[in-house]
Amino acid sequence: MDKKLFTFFPFALWLIYVIFLSATNPEVRWDWEKEEAKPMSFPDGFVWGVATAAHQVEGECTNNWSAWENSTDENNNPRIHNDEKSGIACDHWNRYQDDIQLIKDLGVTSYRFSIEWSKVEPEEGQFDARALEHYKNVCIALKESGIMPVVTLHHFTHPIWFEEKGAFENKENLSYFVRYSERVFDALNEYVGLWCTINEPAVYTYQGYFNGLWPPGKTDPQLTGEVLYNLMEGHVRVYRALKARAGGHVAKIGIVKNIFPFDPYNRWNPLDWMVTRILDNVFNIVALEFLTSGIYNYSMPTMANVKYENPDAVGTLDFIGMNNYSHQRINSHLNPNRFFTIEFYPHEPMTDMNYPIYPEAIYRSIKRVSELGVPIFITENGIADAKDDRRALYIDRYIRAVARSIQEGFDVRGYFYWSLMDNFEWSEGYDMKFGLYKVNFQTQKRRLRDGSRRFIEIVSASKDE
Ligand code: FCB
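That is the input. Now the predicted structure with beta-D-fucopyranose docked in place:
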């Protein structure tokens, strides 16, 4: 009897534990027939837009990323899929006027783009007036077309001199980021509707410092936590600095946070749950918690432990920019060198990136960031779909999920599709086709994809309401 109890007890404990976790962290799944039958509506003034980032579209960048593209790994292998280089990309630097017409043709009223720091300040302390003039002209052309500029100050790239100083590894370097941000702000603030300080700090640090797939190619969990903190601190300092400048008090300034809901591969496996929660914490929660409480607590048992506190972080958001593409499913392993892999079930419908189509993810992510208590803009959402056979469905369902969250009372003010056109997708190179417009990179011709028409329809229907 005692023996039976002895074997039953751990089993019961495990059962209670996984049942509790499963119940408190449901993997939301909706009945899509029902969802599709519901009318979609959006509040007055809802902002529709499209997004790009400088390095991915402008062309001819000399920055940390171009240096990375031209380097090889320790086995002499190229860093980028097919050894591609960003090169002239979409030549958006020269073709922005035509591209603004394409934005206008979609019927949207906003454009999120980023400023290439390496063009504005190619050498330390030497600001290029022509580069600032260029961005000013972009803003003027947008305004003339009735399109609100939304500007990101740091979207993964920066000058080589900044990288050589250790970039965001050193807290002392934040003053360079603040100085550059102030220059850009002074030049463009009269045109800009929303300012995004930093794009996806957790993605930048995870790729560059945890798995080493992006510059500077490091694999150091403790440093990952330190760099993420410095980026968050950078946001706080830039926010405070810009607020103190002329026009700053009315400017709308926020950060862009990517949210991936994390789900365990095996819902019955407590180890999958444990790893899932650790990753959710460092990837999603730590940054959000810092913004609400000023407390930064980055912890990966036996690997990283970074703690800071800065009460000044509280109140540094006029809005939150939220990027979401899908969820991540975590399969844990008892191998300290590879303690998890990201895997999906065979029946999950995939995009061309390693992300399934899972529209409920955007709803779950909105719920998460709503805890910040500030207006939410979906600053990126979109699909890589070279065949263009899933784009219309993806757009329709993800936007339905946004509409449902608004109906349930979440304060979502806008939605930006990623991306206006095909572009250089970081280490994936040019194979990932996120564009509403297909780009022929030989001729630089752009053509609207059929699947993108669903986006145009939704935007135009929301105006007729
Ligand atoms: C996001 C990035 C953006 C683009 C999309 C596909 O993580 O912010 O630049 O690469 O993914």
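The pocket of beta-D-fucopyranose is lined by residues 53, 56, 199-200, 203, 258, 323, 380, 418, 425-426, 434 (CB under 6 Å).
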